[in-house]
Amino acid sequence: MGGPGESVRDVLAANLRRARIERGLSLSELSRRSKIGKATLSQLEAGAGNPTIETVFSLSRALEVPISDLLDRQLPFGPTVVRGAEVEVLRGAAVDLRPLHGIEVDGAIVEVYDQRVRPGARQDSLGHVGIEHTVVQAGRLGVRVGDQEVELGPGDYIGFDALRPHGYVALDGPVRSVLLLQYGSDQRLRHADPHAPGPGGNG
Question: pTM of the entire structure?
Answer without folding.
Answer: 0.63
